[in-house]
Amino acid sequence: MSYDGPTELYIDGEWTAAENGETIETVDPATEETYATVACASAEDVTHAVAAADAAAERGSEWRTMSPSDRGAYLRTMADEIEAMADEIGLVESHDNGKTPFEASLDVDMVVDTFRYYAGWADKLTGETIPVPGNRLDYTLQEPLGVTAHIAPWNYPFQLAGRSLAPALACGNTAVLKPSNTTPLTALYYAKAAEAAGLPDGVLNVIPGRGSEAGSALVSDPAVDHVAFTGSTGVGKHIMSEAADNVTGVTLELGGKGPNMVFPDADLEAASKGVHYGIFMNCGQMCWAGSRLLVHEDIHDEVVERVVNRAEATPLGSGIDDDGRMGPAVSESHREEVLDYIQTGIEEGATVATGGGIPEDKERGYFIEPTVFTDVTNDMTIAREEIFGPVLSVIEFSDDEEAIEIANDSPFGLSAGVWTNNINRAHDTAARLDYGMVSINEYPQTFPQTPFGGFKESGVGREQGTEAIKEYTQAKNVNVNIDR
Ligand code: NDP
Question: Catalytic residue among 287, 369, 386, 463, which?
Fold first, then answer.
């Protein structure tokens, strides 16, 4: 199936080729065939996009002086436009990233909900009046930051771009979006939606390009006021240091090594389903994957058997031509990285309970067998590092204290799952986990209304919910001396 969506950069309300004519070729990971060719932004294109966003963010600009309710209406219209293109966006995402159409449709639905949620926020960005000594009126104004840069990864290309774009725009900022060059296509549909909604020129700019050139130029541009980055911890650290040169604020959503903790009093069928979903969804390419299964020794064998049965029954396929429930890895090089981790797990003494390689019946596509390792200890590489693939590491514990200690013994702190029917254990465990998100008796789960982000090396700041409003506004304090 050929791609007939947008292929050019979108800068200042215009579709344009890269100034040096460079392009990116994308490969469908399920077929290994070239799927699309799109423009690849150079550093010069980035400068143009940031200048356009900067002009659109000026105090006297249309966007800046618009009534907040009208700004909210633009976001609502964008949500409608995205919803109208949902089938097309889902299909393109499926070809570009390899995720199943079902997974892609969930991503698009989440974006539509996110834009509608933040549309409602646009005219509710109130400040506060502050009681101060003397005869004074003291109050705050919540102002936009200005130009926001959005750098998105390849695992949820459409959804994660929309997650930061929607609050940034709702708060009155302008935006430049750079998707991953591995999956640049669906980002361009934000430009289509903005164009169709009649957003003022320059408010939203979309520039597919390489991280090393376009991404780096974007982060270090002095006119950028905030960088919203989702990606690996290594690149996140680099971006934080680059942004520091201009004292630019950052929101970093980075990696994870989520513990999914199953206690003996849990509903084991529900837990096994949640464990399966938490590691094999999106081919395990999820920052918040429940990649460590922490299971009590009394139920270890039963839970492992259930999870292994589910893993072995998972139909593989992109879903475009069949009923696949787990797609391929995003690229050949990424599959190699995942297979290397599996080899390391074997060498360090873990046992492959199922999977461990490339499925025999898949001659094409970067598929990997859903893999479950038992006999894992928390010091092994496969328990410490983010594999970002369909590989589950099962670790046994004997009591609650040990479970919490193992869960917290990680450089990451993004998302954790707790499975128990004991209400005290549920809340006590949630309170003691060093994680930004804890989900009890379902995994993983998030909503546009709830904060998303992590402790420790999983990031800085929060997306989603009211927390994101704080990321994309700044308080101005006004003190009035009232003369009597
Ligand atoms: P990367 O960190 O490799 O890339 C993320 C983005 O940064 C891409 O757009 C990339 O561009 C760009 N980039 C790379 N180098 C630079 C640079 N020097 N300056 C500016 N931008 C740069 O992550 P992946 O795409 O591999 O995504 C996987 C990672 O994302 C995982 O670690 C995962 O945990 C994390 N993630 C975190 C989430 C969260 O919410 N916490 C959610 C989803 C993923 P290009 O690809 O073109 O090089």
Answer: 287
* Cβ atoms < 10 Å from Cβ of 135: 10
Instruction: Say if pTM beats, i.e. exceeds, 0.70.
Output: yes
Closest CA to 177 of 51, 71, 15, 46: 46
| pLDDT string in tens for the chain (484-residue length) | 789 999 999 999 999 999 999 999 999 999 999 999 999 999 999 999 999 999 999 999 999 999 999 999 999 999 999 999 999 999 999 999 999 999 999 999 999 999 999 999 999 999 999 999 999 999 999 999 999 999 999 999 999 999 999 999 999 999 999 999 999 999 999 999 999 999 999 999 999 999 999 999 999 999 999 999 999 999 999 999 999 999 999 999 999 999 999 999 999 999 999 999 999 999 999 999 999 999 999 999 999 999 999 999 999 987 566 678 999 999 999 999 999 999 999 999 999 999 999 999 999 999 999 999 999 999 999 999 999 999 999 999 999 999 999 999 999 999 999 999 999 999 999 999 999 999 999 999 999 999 999 999 999 999 999 999 999 999 999 999 998 8
Nearest CA to ligand 1 atom 9: 180
Ligand 1 atom with least separation from CA of 179: 9
CA pair distance 456, 15, nearest whole angstrom: 40
Q: Residue 206 Cα, ligand 1 centroid: separation in angstroms?
A: 17
Among the listed residues 231, 230, 252, the one whose alpha carbon sits nearest the alpha carbon of residue 241: 252
CA of residue 365 to ligand 1 center, whole Å: 22
What gap in Å lies between CA 435 and CA 443, rounded to an integer?
14
Is 40 labeled as catalytic in the residue annotation?
Answer: no
Residue bearing the CA closest to ligand 1, atom 31: 232
**Ligand 1 proximal residues by C-beta, below 6 Å:** 151-156, 160, 178, 180-182, 210-212, 215-216, 219, 230-232, 235, 238-239, 253-256, 287, 386, 388, 414, 459
Q: How far apart are CA 371 and CA 392, in angstroms?
A: 6
| 253 carries an active-site annotation | yes
Q: How many CB atoms lie within 10 A of CB 364?
A: 12
Task: Quickly count helices (H) and strands (E) in the chain.
Answer: 16, 21
Atom of ligand 1 nearest to the CA of 210: 47
- Cα of 250 vs centre of ligand 1, distance in Å, is 14
| Per-residue tokens: 10 | 């979108």
What spacing in Å lies between the alpha carbon of 285 and ligand 1's midpoint? 12
Compute the distance from residue 232 Cα to the ligand 1 centre, in Å.
5
